[in-house]
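User: I'm writing a tutorial on reading structure tokens. Could you give me a worked example: one chain, its sequence, then its tokens, then a sentence or two explaining what the tokens reveal?
Assistant: Sure. Here is the example chain.
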Amino acid sequence: MKTLPEDILAHARSLPEGGIVSPKAFLHLGSRSAIDQALSRLAREGKLLRVARGAYVAPVTGRFGTRPPAPSKVVESLAIQNGETVVPHGATVANAFGLTQQVPIREAYVTSGRTRKIRLGRAEILVKHGPGWMLTLGNCPAGNAIRALAWLGPRLARQSVPIVRRTLSGDEWAALTTVRASLPSWLARAIGEEASNGRAVS
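And here are its predicted structure tokens:
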């Protein structure tokens, strides 16, 4: 018969990379205090990583040794568990669009939930609450464009909208123009001007 820590560890290792282990998942196996103690012990031994309060993940073991799971996988799992929308931060997607050469110092995301920090090994990931308009189109190219332009600010965004238009597919550009009424006035104006100027997309 397995002990409580063994049961928890077996469950954690059965999850996809970045899968969240929560104390509530084991209440049928023992008291909350016993479960918390088992999770703390597994974390001290390095068999689990505590990423946030009441949230643990299993390290990933491969041919090159053991590593923390990918941050994006952990953030995605937390979003599902908490019923949140979580998307890449504007600084990250602005760099991906080629709108800036600035590389973010740390990995960051925007969420419909509360602002918090996630620890993953030595790395700290910022998950920051964002306004609804910033999450309108979710994690798709057009949605990423909204956050990239928002991060750049009014002056640089206006200069960058033509680049965004050339980068997006026709469908994604259409999606972006469709939601501009929900965006801040300066951003809606910049997108609207580009949409109405008749430039050909190269």
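What the tokens reveal: The chain has a mean pLDDT of 91. The chain has three domains: 4-67, 77-133, 137-196.
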